[in-house]
Amino acid sequence: MNPDEATFIALHIVNAEMNTNMSQMYDITKILDGCIQIAGEYYQKKWKEEEKVYMTIHLKCLNRYRES
Questions:
Q1: Contact yes or no for 2/13 (Cβ under 8 A)
Q2: Percent of the chain clearing pLDDT 70 (strictly above)
Q3: Integer Cα distance of 21 and 15 in angstroms
């Protein structure tokens, strides 16, 4: 499976899990990507795709913790 197809499927799964529409999911994705870019600039590091996924999962969990 190519990365674009995997991303498309993952977005739909997360979208269903979070009970959001695709527009909201797109906004959330842009915000998370911005956070990862800021962290990369701070640490002067170019993230591998696996590292981005790992960080996204942790940011999502942090948000859930904050909401509870």
A1: no
A2: 81
A3: 7
